[in-house]
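task queued by scheduler; priority normal; single chain, no ligands, no partner chains; default sampling; output format set to structure tokens
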Amino acid sequence: MNIEEMDARSEEIFEKVKNIIVREAKVDESLVTLDATMNDLYADSATRMSIADELDREFDLGTLDVDLAEDTTVGDIVEFILDHIDE
């Protein structure tokens, strides 16, 4: 997924994900791109867990375990949420 391929719904989800990452990882929002990995965003395991918890709350992912690895990209997260909320 790249920014040119995003529709309005994807852009809205990306903005929400970006805001959560900025708040939880305490990084500048310019660093949060679709290609940025959790490692690029300096998100250690505790921060990734916190981001996952916030994503769960924001998007009502239920008991689904959102596993954010060091190489998980922001685009992966957006696609995961799109796939889950379309079910």
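post-processing summary
- The chain has a mean pLDDT of 87.
- The radius of gyration is 12 Å.
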